[in-house]
Design brief:
Layout lengths: L2 E5 L11 E9 L8 E6 L3 H6 L2 E8 L6 H16 L8 H22 L8 E9 L2 E7 L3 E6 L2 E4 L28 E6 L5 E5 L1 H18 L3 H14 L6 E10 L4 H8 L14 E2 L2 E9 L3 E8 L5 E7 L7 H16 L20 E5 L3 E3 H6 L6 H20 L2 E2 L8 E4 L4 E3 L6 E2 L19 H4 L6 H17 L30 H10 L11 H10 L13 H4 L1 H25 L1
Antiparallel strand pairs: 1-2, 2-11, 3-4, 4-5, 5-6, 6-9, 7-8, 7-10, 10-11, 12-13, 13-14, 14-15, 15-16, 17-19, 18-21, 19-20
Length: 579
Amino acid sequence: MISRHACGPSAVQAAMSLVITVGSATTTGKRDRNEDFCGLVTPDGSTLATRGAMVAVADGVSGAEAGREAAEYCVRSLLADYYSTPDTWEVALALDRVLSAINRWLVGQGNAHVPHRTTTTTISVLVLRGSRYYIGHVGDTRVYRLRDHALTRLTDDHVWDHPERQHVLKRAVGLDRHLVVDHADGELLAGDTFLVCSDGVWHPLRELRIAAILELRRDPGHAADALVNAAVDAGGQDNATAAVVRVDGVSSASWREMVQANSDLRVPGKLTIGQYIDDFEVVDLVHESRATRLYRVRARRSGQMLALKTLQPLLGDDPQSREGLLAEEWLAKRVVSAQFPQVVPVPAGARRYLYYVMTWHVGATLQQYLDRGQHFSTGDVVHIGIQVAQGLATLHRLSILHRDIKPANLLRGEDARIRILDLGVALAAGVPYPELETNPGTPSYMAPELHAGEPASEQSDVYAAGVCLYHLLTRKYPYGEIEPFQHPVFGNPVPPTRYRPDIPRWMENLVLRAVARNKAERFETAEELLLALERGEARDLSPPLRVALWQRSPATRWKLVAVVSLVVNILLLYLLLVR
């Protein structure tokens, strides 16, 4: 029996977006039971732009009655759960997380049921998004691409090399507790044709015949039918499943679509109190930097107080600044958390200028509190630290790095809630930032590895949070204040009890671990910092090891050796002369 799925461009396209046609077919062949399973998701609109279209083919391990169930569960779960992942996650990360969860479940099912009942399957996944394709692959199902009359295999089979074991899988979903997924990606071109198939297709046909069928049958549904029929006619003994995707049109990446959609928006001039910008009345200018302006505004219809952020007028024609503001809005929309101001959507067509609007919260930044002479108790700092760690954990789960955590970006509201401000230099996969070659941020809050030119990481955000806690407690910095363009040498941090003897030992150890010069001694994640703050003195931490100067600096070590050698030589020379 052959089943077929096909959809035309009208079903899978959005304005300025990817256009594909998909067809699939499967047959039991000469087997009693079809253990293959194929799934297709072809969304439209924003989902197509952010998550893409997906095709997956799984082949349950034969010889076990649960093979079909494993293949179907794997594909159905993947298609459902992938589209529930945050759209700030890159495709490879989302596939890895979802397939790892599916693998754990299948391994558990295999262990829990009848011995030798195998819940194992191969899977090959193709995701088409924007102007690129992405592949996740485990086992001996395959993905091919036909481009310019040349067929290219894009996956490797995970089977043993020994001639007698060439059909024995060494990697599959549900086979081992630790799943390793192969990932690949590349550029999409209009006219590309992709094939995702089980070994029941590629093994009896070989690649020359596959290429000929794909060339001859341009309709994906007809091509899928022809492939599975040809596999059976060629003597194939296995189930045969094929999914064919034809790329009819390629979009720019979703990020680029957003830039293009807002390319005609003008940066407003300097706004005055009482002036209207679209549907918002300016109440006052809250903050101004070299690049941006932040106004408090009132919505004309609802009367709600909001914050409006835009660029300085002089940067209105600067593409990098425009993209930077759009990047900030794009990321902020995806961070739904009480620890952050929330973006307020402006209806399409209602915005004539380049800006975005977010919720307004009455309060002051922690830097403003410090400037007023505010004293923070250990309890205050613990309460603040817990909320900052919660906010960072939210960002990091979305694969977003803040890169500029400091008291000036931490707002304490009238409700005592801490909100993290300013995603202007935040970094997420898939969103270009114009200054990636440098590490932005405030020098005194930047981790040592950032000063050394390493890229930002979750641990560098944790370090900045630790410096904030240290500064709130002591009004000092663990390694001293660092000026812009300075090249600091990081020694051992000054214990905060040097400035405030009343700080509990557990809190001192926690802060010192958060600001450890060596990443290996620092908290690995914001969740780990959060847990330590919540446990408090109930579980004291040991402080990072203090390292002698000659141990932490190879250059200093050799200088010391040279000095000692010089002193010894002078002493020997003196002894020779006095004799």
